[in-house]
Design goal:
The structure holds two protein chains of two kinds. Chain A has one domain (about 1-180): de novo design (two linked rop proteins). Chain A is built from seven helices and no strands. Chain A has helices at about 1-60, 65-80, 85-105, 110-115, 115-150, 155-160, 175-180. Chain B is an alpha+beta fold. Chain B folds into two domains: about 1-330, no CATH class; about 370-400, no CATH class. Chain B is built from twelve helices and eight strands. Classes of the chains: A mainly alpha, B alpha+beta. Chains A and B meet through helix 1 and helix 5 of A and helix 3 and helix 12 of B.
Chain lengths: ~190, ~400
Amino acid sequence: MIALWVVLGIVVVLLLIFVALYNGLVGMRNQCRNAWAQIDVQLKRRHDLIPNLVETVKGYMQHERQTLEAVTKARNIAQAASGSSVGERAKLEGELSSALARLMVVVERYPDLKANQNFLALQEELTSTENKISFSRQFFNDSVLKYNNKTQMFPSNAVAGMFNFKAEEFFEVKVAAEREAPKVSFT
Amino acid sequence: MWEQIRSNQVKSIILVVLMGVVLLALGYSLGLLFLGSPTAGLVIALVVWAIMNLIAYFQGDSILLSISGARKIGPDDHPRLYNVVEEMKIASGLEKMPDVYIIDDPALNAFATGRDANHASVAITSGLLQKLNRDELQGVIGHEMAHIKNRDVLLMSMLAVLLGTIVILAWYASRILLFSGAARGGSRRSSGGGGGGGQLIILAVAIVLMILAPIFAQLIYFAVSRRREYLADASSALYNRYPEGLASALEKLASSDTRVKAANQATAPMYTVNPLQKKGMAATSLTATHPPVAERIRILRAMGGASYRDYERAYAQMKQKHIVPPTALVGAAPVPLRAASPEEAVTEKVEHARDTSDLMWRLSNYRTIDCPCGARLRLPPNVKQITVSSIKCPHCGRVHAV
């Protein structure tokens, strides 16, 4: 009789541990998806801002058609690929980021443009959107790291294997191109 | 992050309980002294405390915001501030965007309030908004966001209420004692003495408690508050990946000698730096709600990376003590620092200052008319009452319709 209760007790405890591990994994996976949705919102926002920016800037810089075309092209490619995998999108968005950075360097040569209120408002929005992209990416990657650790570490890896919790992909942008912040000179 | 919050909470709860004990001891001895029954004293102390807690929980944020004269702004009122708050909200992984408030005050400070992450607000003085560049603003807002994320605000307001209750009880008791005691002393003298020695001892204990309880409570309050400032600094550095932003903002805050007009003892711990401290006066380590700013700056600048581990190392080097709960350090990957944002041109700095002052005029319901001659006219809100339908530019003489 006692043996039966002991066995029953062990089974219940194991079941509770199992439920806790499973729920923990689900929670972390949902956090990753939620964080990914945040990135997605900001990337879309950037895609929406770029046509406006190009329109505003075009009148001022007749000689920079190539730079502007590069931005528009990178934006269209990135937007068309919005359904593809995390890695693919990261690469295309990285290219868009560097095209934009080049444009912002060129902008420094046009003081008239920098006095345009419309442009200043756009620039603030764009700067902030770039920041939001990198902050949401930061949060996403942290969430993914935690989730991936859980799917690979004992004992949660057993539950993860049973219910097919797969490791998620990091959102890595080519760091070198991204860190190239436009420099302002005081001359 | 969760582990950090939890271990934070355990230590804080111990301190809260300690403060509760001080309150109960005070109630007990006061009851014994005035009402002849310790239970009545306990009940009164608890009832006062409960009422104040309820008020603080449901109304605390709006009371705090209204006594500091804060006004709510939207994304169009000041895009830069609103964007930075949103950036920090994303970096901290907060689910709901906190309300953004601005305080019309030249002093440099900021605070966060709200009982939980879904009812949170961030307030910043117009003076600070004018002085900081983007990286510094991110550092300060990140610090406030960390207070929200780490659930500091609720704990601090509960503690403030506990402290307030103790101070109020002790204050009233001392008044009652002063007047009734003086009266009784007079009658005793005329009747030639009396009263048991036991009552004298109770009286002595009660007086000592009355004097010491508020001081004790304040020390406990300060200890909790200081710990949380360091941890919020650490979180801010992690969110930004750029501790230098907060460090240089703190430098600006420390070098300003304007004090926040609408700050007092109880609201002080809510601010980024202590709003009450006079310039040049070193706060003694026990009675400061905030750690010395110079120390906070040195720790932030000594960080080699942006992780909690880097903060812990810098802190340990400075103080030979630990600050970040060890559970928050386990399994954390190294976090590299990011580069500084491009430096702002002087014209941009001027533009930022102007943005802020325009916003303050607008929030006070002033109307702005830009005259083609370059003059900018500002009409006070009560101009309607004196029925002005047009106004002449004092510079060029053009007439503008109002």
